[in-house]
Structure formats: C-alpha cells, structure tokens
Amino acid sequence: MAEITRIFDFPYYQLDTYNLEKAFTTKYGGEWKSISSQEYVNQANAISRGLLQLGVQPNDKIAVISSTNRTEWNVLDIGILQVGAQNVPIYPTISAEDYEYILNHSEAIYCFVSDYEIIKKLNSVKGNTKLKYIYTFDDIKGENNWNDVLILGKDNSNQNEVESRKKAVKPNDLATLIYTSGTTGKPKGVMLSHNNLVSNVLDSEKRVPFDYGKSKSLSFLPVCHVFERMILYLYQYCGVEVYFAESIEAMSDNLKEIKPNVMTAVPRLYEKVYDKIIAKGSDLTGIKKKLFFWAVDLGLKYEPYGQNGWWYEKQLKLARKLIFSKWKEGLGGNLDLMVSGSAALQTRLTRVFAAAEMPIMEGYGLTETSPVISVNDQRNGGFRIGTVGKIIDNVDVKIAEDGEILVKGPNVMQGYFKDSKKTDEVMTGDYFHTGDIGEICDEGFLKITDRKKEMFKTSGGKYVAPALIENRFKQSRFIEQIMVIGEGEKMPAALIQLNFEFVEEWGKRHNIVFKSEQDIICNETLHIRIQEEIDEANKNFGKWEQIKKFEITPDIWSIDAGHLTPTMKMKRKVIKDIYKDLIEKIYRP
After folding, report:
1. How many angstroms separate the CA atoms of 162 and 52, rounded?
2. Phi–psi pair at 446, nearest 5 degrees
3. Range 301-310 average pLDDT
4. E strand or H helix at 349, and its extent?
5. Spatial contact of 134 and 113, defined as CB atoms under 8 Å apart
C-alpha cells in the first residue's frame, strides 16, 4: 500500500489492510444495513464517475447537509475528493439564511441533503444561489436522489479519468471548506488541505488504544464538525467498524444494540449521560441507594495510576463490581474509551467515568487546527485529570506573553476562504492564535484556563474567566445552562436556565406543585434552594469572581432558538441580547 497523503487514500488502505465486512452501518426503516470496505470503495468510485458525467471540475465546491451521520455522507465525501473537487459540509440546524450565505460564499454548484426537513428549508433559498441541482439521500417525491448519481456512475468507461484526477490531487491541495458555527458574526470558511487532515489522523493515531481491525465505534457527533470527521478517517485507518447513531434520543438504545468499544462526544452529552445515571440512583431506596452514592463519592475522588493508595484501590475494585459494572452494562457493556472535545470537560466527569472503567480522554483543538492539538492517553502515564493531555507529534505549541496558546504544525489551516484580513489577524508567521489561554506543566500536559475573548473585566478592574466558573456551577443538578456576565459592571452575575425536569422531581419530593414554567421561575422556595447551590459553588472562587446575583431565564436554551451553536456552545452575544431585560434587572433594579 502506497503512503497515505490524501484523504481518499484511507478507504483503499482499509481495504488492503483490513477488508472489513462492515465498514459502515446505518439504520434504515428499523434495520441496520452495512457496506463492506470493498463496497465503500466501489460506491465512492461510482460517485466520482457520476460527478464527472455531471461536468464537475477540479476545485468545484459541493455542499452536503445531513441531519444525521450516515453511510452516504462518507461515500459521497470520498467521491467528491477523488475528482479534485471540495466538500463543503453545512450544519443542518442553522437558518435558511445561513444556508444561503454559505452556499453563495463557497460558490457551491451542487448540494446533497439528507431529508425532507432540510430540502424544505433549502428550497426556500435555492433560487438565490448558484446551485445547479440538489440531490437527497432519503427518497423524497419530486426531488433528485443521490442514487441518480450512482446510476450515472455505473458506466465505468470514464474510470481512467477518475484515476487521472486522483493522481493530480496533491497533499497540499484544498480538500474542504468548513464553516465555523461561530458564536459571533457570519461563519468563516476554514480552508483545510488533504495534508492538514491526513497529518492530524496519523499523528493522533498513536494516542488511541484500538483493537485494530476488530473495534466497533458509535458515531453521532455531527460529521460536519471537524472533530467527528477526523475521527471517522481515523476509524477507517485503524480498521474500526463504524455504526451511525439514529439520533441523540436513540443513543441509549443504539449503545445497547451495537455494544461499541469507543464513541466521541462533546461535554454536554457526557453531562446528560451522567445526570441520567444519577437520576436513576436517586430513585433507589435503602442499602441499594447508599451503595450507589458510596460508589459515586468514591469515583469523584479518582486519581489514575493508583495514586490514591492501596485502600482506595481495594474499595474501587468493590465499587466496580457492585455498581460501576451496571453503568457500563447500561452503555452497551463494551465501552472502553470515550473521547471528548469542543469545550471544557468537568473534572468530576473525567474522574467518575474513569473510575467506572469507561475513561473519557479529553482532547483539545479547533477547526483551524484540523482539529487535534493535544489529547490524553491512559497508556504510558499520558493521562492527567484537569488537562487536555500532551501535545501530539509534529505539532508545536508555545504560550504567548499574555497566556494565549499559539500553534504551529502541518495541521494548521491554509486560511479563511476569501478573507485574508481575518486570516492575518490570527496568524503570526506560521503560528496560529487559538484565542485560548493556557499553560504547559513540567511533564508536558497542556491545561486550558479560559477563552481569551470570553474573559472580561469588572468595573473594579478585576479579570473574570467565565468558563471556569460556569463549569463548576453546572455541577448542580438544578442548573442546565449558566452564563456568567458582568463586563464593566461592579460584580459578576449569572443567567441560569434550570434543569426543568429535575426541578419538577425536586418539587414533588417537597410537595410543591408547579403548574407552569412561570410557576417554577417565580417560586421563592426554589430561589432559596438555588441560592444555596450558588453559595456552595462560590466557595471555590475569589471574592471578585463570586456570583452575587442571578436571574432564571423562562425558556430552554437551544440551537433552534439561537442560544447555542450546533456544538452546544453558548452564543454569548445572542443570549445577552435575548435577556437584556433580565440583565437590566440585575444591575439596574
């Protein structure tokens, strides 16, 4: 097998090395359907031939919008890249206006979409774009189907041209435009080359303990997110079977059906998994409940490599047998590794899941760095709680005088598409400015302390790092989301979105009946209880950082309502704007 230098080399490497019977598996109409490594390569070549028949030229842009991860996305991705065109993945949950902006900015000429909801949204703006055709993965009446392109490609008389196009693609050629979901302003098109992504896969591979050719994975983090996309290439390289979750709601069932060895997610999803486990434990009674929370308390004290001593390890062995084994069973029974990225992971989750023998290996990166910069690895002492691991090979990190993390390496993007001004703003020579503040300890572990752009100064001149404070407060089961505010004000305060489900349960236990969400927000007993949670969390911070006042927001923060990005990060500017009246109430009552 020749050296892997372009993204489309991965499927051929998998075919030669592992030749999997189940390379990708998706559920259609209640039934799991797989394609082999050979079928993957065959279908990708058919797509390439079909695209040539459609007149696709090198450097043409083809957009892909899918509500769920699925086999078709991966086949199409390789088919596009082999002809020298570029794949432009678009988040399904953004507005029709954002679809229009990205399609026009990228100059996409074809678009492949997954389902009726997306085609309906896209059809409302397609007349304002340069799109020649739209194809759907689902069978939708009156719409072109992606099978039409596969059928076009059945005629293999132009396979020689596909081979010529493949040979013409160089490692440093542009492979994809990934539009950042952006917490402010219009999305920026990050230009990533084949080498950006390939180098990141090869340099990250040394940190993942897969059983090569045998491991199973569950994929549900949107593939338009560079983290999941790079991981999918990594799975292909390591011969890992990929199963696509039907939805977040079906994740629990899918875990039990598939029994994967590995999955990747963003912290918010791990928080939800943990909260559900704790809620089940709270429903227990008597000795079972006592044992459950004894194990949880033990897990929250976990340190790797037996650092807590023999007595702790003896207790942990018992907790694993009695309690944690049931957690693992509930998540399929074979989950040996979970990977987290995109935002800071609460250390309590790192501890308790590692104690339960389902370690979450937290990593760090950005779309602009393809994405991995560093990642934890349990082997060889490479796991340190509270850090994002050691920096991967061939990537150079230095800390600027103001604490900002700067990165240089083959994974750093080519720039922002059609925006040299914004590119220049984030580059100093070969070093990319991440916008994150951090430090590297003596053992080489990288620790993120805050987002440079999110830090603010109170009117007293004190700096506040909101992400650190928010992560501590989100440990409360009452709090679903929290945003710390106070720039230019005399003190920090917070906007809180309650975990309404938990609050209702709490109300029942205290004989409080909530008839509506408004009832919840106005309940004085609940306010007193939340103040207790805040007082407890405040003990972890300096006086100038402590939350002095809070307001409860009346609705659930969501992607659709604009509070959150598609990767569940808060859009701070939008949230401030939505709740400007509540902010006024805090600071100018």
Report:
1. 8
2. -95, 135
3. 97
4. helix 347-355
5. yes
Q: Specify burial of residue 306 (Cβ count, 10 A radius: 0-12, 13-18, 19+).
A: exposed
- Alpha-carbon Rg for the chain in angstroms: 25
| The pair of three-digit structure tokens given for residue 72, joined into one six-digit string | 């078709």
Cis peptide before 209 (omega within 30 of 0): no
Looking at residue 185, its pLDDT comes to: 66
Name the residue type at position 231. I
Return d(Cα 423, Cα 430) in angstroms, integer.
12
> What separation in angstroms does the CA of 22 have from each of 25, 71, 200, 213, 531?
7, 11, 25, 11, 52
Residue 182 has a pLDDT of 56
3-state secondary structure 442-507: CCCEEEEEEECCCCEECCCCCEECHHHHHHHHCCCCCEEEEEEECCCCCCCEEEEEECHHHHHHHH
Interatomic CA distance for residues 346 and 537, integer angstroms: 14
pTM of the model: 0.88
Q: Which helix (DSSP H) or strand (DSSP E) does residue 176 occupy?
A: strand 174-179
Q: What are phi and psi of 580, to 5 degrees?
A: -60, -30
**pLDDT over 70 at 183, yes or no:** no
- Pair 171, 558: CB distance under 8 Å: no
Say if residue 588's pLDDT is above 90. Answer: no
Distance (Å, whole) CA 40 – CA 373: 30
Residue with tokens 């061939």: 394
Using alpha carbons, list the distances in angstroms from residue 553 to 271, 481, 548.
20, 10, 17
Measured at the CA of 586, the angle between CA 580 and CA 588, to 5 degrees, comes to 85
Q: Which tokens hold the place of 476?
A: 């409360």
Sign of the dihedral defined by the CA atoms of residues 127, 129, 135, 140, in that order: negative
Condensed to tens digits (0 to 9), the pLDDT of residues 145-170 reads: 999 999 999 999 999 999 999 999 99
Average pLDDT over residues 446-461: 83
What pLDDT, on the 0 to 100 scale, is given for residue 107? 98
User: Is residue 99 within 8 Å of 90, Cβ to Cβ?
Assistant: yes
> Which tokens in the block code for residue 552?
């409860």
| Contact between residue 89 and residue 190 where contact means Cβ atoms under 8 Å apart | no
* Rounded Cα gap, residues 366 and 404, in angstroms: 14
Quote the longest CA-to-CA distance of the chain: 75
End-to-end Cα distance, the chain: 70
Query: For residue 530, how far is the Cα from the chain centroid?
Result: 30
Residue 558 DSSP class = -
Question: Tell me, what's the pLDDT at 184?
Answer: 54
What is the enclosing helix (H) or strand (E) of 244?
A: strand 241-244
